[in-house]
């Protein structure tokens, strides 16, 4: 009889174990069961952004003889304008230079007749490089047109 009661207890325990709520097996005191907690996502790999594609910068020869509209289209609004009778000097700040565009009044309007580039120390700077740095700033939106 004792064997029968032990067998009955074991069978009952097995039956109750089969009917038990499995969500309680992974109880989480913070509300969600461990089975429903999503695995942490792997961080997305960092991709290097390609620099924007820029148009080629104009050369000094392309700007000389140009009117104020052409100069503004290529270099943007100057940082400073000095007006003299019959002439204007437009100053632009480049990455490591100052660009000076000299415009003189002609019958057809103001025309660029000379372009000079100066280094921060006051000496001569590479004119083509300075034009390129001012044009790059315009294309990247750091300078207004």
Question: What key attributes describe this structure?
Answer:
145 residues, four-stranded antiparallel β-sheet, 30% helix, alpha+beta, 4 helices
Please tell me about this protein's structure.
The protein has four helices and four strands; from the N terminus they run H-H-H-E-E-E-E-H. A four-stranded antiparallel sheet has the order 1-2-3-4. The termini are far apart. The model has no long low-confidence stretch (mean pLDDT 80). With 145 residues, it is an alpha+beta fold.
Quick summary:
The chain is an alpha+beta fold. The protein has helices spanning 2-19, 60-63, 68-75, 127-139; strands spanning 80-84, 87-93, 98-106, 109-118.
Topology:
Blueprint (H helix, E strand, L loop, with lengths): L1 H18 L40 H4 L4 H8 L4 E5 L2 E7 L4 E9 L2 E10 L8 H13 L6
Antiparallel strand pairs: 1-2, 2-3, 3-4
* Uncertain regions spanning at least 5 consecutive residues: none
First CA to last CA: what distance?
A: 102 Å
Biggest sheet overview: 4 strands, antiparallel
Series of H and E elements: HHHEEEEH
Count up the helices. Answer: 4
- Strand tally is 4
Q: What does the average pLDDT come to? A: 80
Q: What Rg do the Cα atoms give?
A: 38 Å
Helix content: 25-40%
């Amino acid at each position: 009889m004792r064997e029968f009661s032990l067998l009955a207890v074991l069978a009952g325990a097995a039956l109750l174990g089969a009917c038990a709520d499995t969500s309680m097996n992974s109880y989480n005191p913070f509300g969600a069961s461990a089975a429903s907690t999503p695995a942490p996502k792997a961080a997305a790999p960092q991709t290097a952004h390609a620099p924007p594609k820029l148009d080629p910068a104009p050369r000094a020869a392309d700007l000389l003889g140009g009117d104020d509209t052409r100069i503004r289209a290529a270099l943007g609004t100057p940082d400073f304008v000095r007006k003299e009778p019959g002439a204007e000097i437009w100053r632009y700040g480049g990455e490591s230079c100052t660009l000076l565009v000299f415009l003189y009044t002609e019958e057809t309007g103001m025309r660029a007749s000379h372009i000079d580039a100066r280094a921060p120390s006051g000496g001569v700077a590479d004119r083509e490089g300075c034009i390129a740095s001012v044009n790059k700033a315009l294309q990247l939106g750091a300078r207004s047109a």
